[in-house]
Amino acid sequence: MYNVGITFGAFEIFHIGHLNLIKNAKKQCKKLIVCVSDDKYIFKKKHHKAVTLLEDRLEILKAIKYIDTIDVQKLSFGKKELIKKHKAEVIFVGNDWNPKTFSGEGLGIPVVYLPRTNGISSTKIRTKLLKEE
Fold first, then answer.
1. CA of 17: how far to CAs of 3, 95, 115, 122, in Å?
2. In which element (H, E) is residue 39 found?
3. 3-state DSSP call for residue 132?
4. Would you call 107 exposed, middle or buried from its count of C-beta atoms within 10 A (0-12, 13-18, 19+)?
5. Whole-angstrom distance, CA of residue 24 vs CA of residue 18
6. 70 in helix, strand or coil?
7. I need a surface site. Which of 51, 70, 86, 99 has the fewest CB within 10 A?
8. Per-residue buried b or exposed e for 8-43, using 16+ beta carbons within 10 Å of the residue's own CB
9. For residues 5 and 111, what is the distance between their CA atoms, to the nearest angstrom?
10. What pLDDT does 121 receive?
11. Is 7:22 a contact under the CB 8 Å cutoff?
12. 1-48: pLDDT as tens digits
């Protein structure tokens, strides 16, 4: 078991896959840090506006008992800085990523690939909502 684990996400359309990732990560560490991307980070990296405001996403995450600490990932304060700030020992990501698509970006700590919840993704939800408009 790790002392401090960290995971990152936009969590802009929070769904059961996000909750499962958080629950599974918490099973492997004493303290779980969840870092949520701010609106500018989402726009720059994902090329769309956040569906849910940052303040609302933070409130949703605060209600989840598996999360010990919540922080915000910004363009100016990213993964490397957050890992150092929180003294994280491991990064948790969904296994929709793999060592070829996410190697921890050379951050010097192991990456644990957790099982993905089949059939659900923010991209699928967003695409479906856009088609319905």
1. 24, 11, 9, 9
2. helix 39-46
3. helix
4. middle
5. 10
6. strand
7. 99
8. bbbbbbbeebbebbbebbbeebebbbbbbbbbebbe
9. 10
10. 66
11. yes
12. 999 999 998 888 888 888 999 999 999 999 999 999 988 988 887 777
- Tell me the pLDDT tens digit for each residue of 37-72: 988 988 887 777 888 899 999 999 999 999 999 999
Residue 34 in tokens: 């969840």
Domains of the chain: 2-132 (3.40.50.620)
Closest CA to 30 of 99, 108, 87: 87
What does the block give as tokens for 27? Answer: 């099973």
Q: Which two tokens stand for residue 85?
A: 């700030």
